[in-house]
Hints:
Blueprint: E1 2-3, H1 14-26, H2 36-56, E2 63-66, H3 69-84, E3 90-94, H4 99-110, E4 114-118, H5 128-134, E5 139-143, H6 157-164, E6 171-175, E7 194-198, E8 209-213, H7 239-255, H8 258-274, E9 281-282, E10 293-297, H9 303-312, E11 315-316, H10 332-336, H11 341-344, E12 347-351, H12 358-379
Parallel strand pairs: 1-11, 3-4, 3-5, 5-6, 6-7
Antiparallel strand pairs: 2-8, 7-8, 9-10, 10-12
The structure holds pyridoxal-5'-phosphate (PLP).
Amino acid sequence: MIYFDNSATTRPHPQVIETMSKAMSSYYGNPSSLHRKGVEAENILNQARAVAAGYLGCKPGEIFFTSGGTESNNAAIKGVAFQYQGRGKHIITTQIEHPAVYDVCKQLESMGFTVTYLPVDHEGRVSVADVQKAMRPDTILVSVMHVNNELGTIQPVEEIGKWLKQFPKVLFHVDAVQGIGKVPLRIKESGIDLLSLSAHKFHGPRGIGILYKREGLIIQPLLTGGGQEAGVRSGTENLPAIAGLAKAFRLLQESGADEPSRLQRLLEQLREGVSPIEGIQVNTPAKGTAPHIMNLSVPGVKAEVLLHSLEERGFLVSTKSACSSKANEPSRVLMAIGVGTECASSSLRISLGRDNTADEVEQFIVALRDCVKTLRSYMK
Ligand SMILES: Cc1ncc(COP(=O)(O)O)c(C=O)c1O
């Protein structure tokens, strides 16, 4: 099978698996224990924090390990909302956020907060001017994702963050889960206060993520208990996963800018190959997107039918984002860019990763052409 579903999750790198296995068998102490096994585990934890901080260009004390992107988003948004509700109860976000932000905002609305969900243009991009217009005296948080998980569109988070610097009491959260290792983002220069990451999107293990929290910023912890992670996230640290995450960061560092450029070339090859196919509409814009995501629709053909037809030919892709792909509704993200229900109900996401090759992309184009031709012939 050829795996083109890297935005849903990536295959853990063999070196990540090796590191985790070693951490599990050798460093099984609890980092909070005072004996040598505890100290050993604590050293691994500190090293991992330093590796993550080095990659992100921040201080180790600004890195907090969580169970993944969903938890980091919840911790950031609810943490700010509950801590600063005395100042105001207004939050600004977008219509195209991942459910781990969008549904958190919906939940907060049911608790008395007010949320502005900003629209996006036909390319799936929010405008800085709209953020500016939405600001109110009671705004406490702006949350905008870095790279959209369905379309790949890059959001102007650097510009938004720079503009927000003049409102030090309005905090800025970025869900950077899809951009890491693919699209550079300067956390400090962009005035980002909180940022979410997830290791399984860059060949690390599942169930481990990072919440970056600017030094000195206080938020209400989601999980209280033993006071691990400086009280921001209690619970015995998942050391093997943390070691695996650090390894995944090291591998990203080693691959440098070459890997995003390679992915970009594959994506261009894919676009050139699929665009001329009759009946296909490419929803991902040609510019200003991450190098690994391509969204397309075959209006009139149900996305699920196309997905299984591609699977029969050996290719694994997604309809919408993996977590909402079982819900039988048109994609909220595609509806937001105004493509209409038919297109939004027939969209596929092809997402590339470090294991994919030009040869696989070529094979995919041939298979897609064949699938679309066959399925459209049934419609006639
Ligand atoms: C943009 C975005 N945010 C958050 C998440 C959730 O991350 P996790 O699966 O680690 O909870 C995902 C995963 O698909 C995502 O794409």
